[in-house]
Request: fold
Amino acid sequence: MRKFICLCLLLHAAILSALITEDSASANALSGITLLSSSVADHQLSPLIGVSGFSLSYSRPFNMGNLGVYSLNSAFPAGFLDLNLGASYLDEGDYLWQDLRLGAAVGYGLLDLGASGHLLYERFSTSQSFHSLAADLALRLGDDDYAAELRWLHPGLQDAQLHITLASQVTGDIGAATSYVYLPQGKDMLRTATRCEIGENFLLLTSWQSAPSRFGAGIGVIWGRGELTYAVRSHPQLSLTHCLDIAYGW
Reply:
């Protein structure tokens, strides 16, 4: 029964739209608030992460053993631009989904602008398949202490999301952010998250969102330029989602 419910959620979202997903450990731990993220993996949701490197991610939605999302992301500077590219893949047997993406960002002073393009492919057990295009737009204003961000994911599509986020560095090691997510075709939600650096080698991430009420938590282990992050995210009716990121920065 749980498998049936999970597949219904995925298929319903796919039929309606291009299907926005949050597949990295960092994104699940922070409930998708990328303004607090320093993970290369979160370029899937924003071109403004501002870090360079390489990442591999695995997500098991609702702890379904045979339902996994694999993601690969890379980001690097190219002249005055910060470029990122990535791919995500899910194959459950009855449903296959792929997301190929490319993004770019540019900064001037306290202002950052970015955009990403997605080429999505979906195939169902009925042999029906679809290609679609989607875009993400982002704007951020702020410094290391205070920042505001506006993200418009998949504008013009039925799954469009508008994220309005404010963040502040509460102390030298703790950051907090609150985000209002406007869904033109759904129920709006509020999200809040914290990021706590514990010494030089550990990172603690926590979050909550409304509609539906979900909690996220993750821990990161940092060694040199490498980082390993594990996260879980709750759901009021389904089991925990488990995620793992492996990243290397340059």
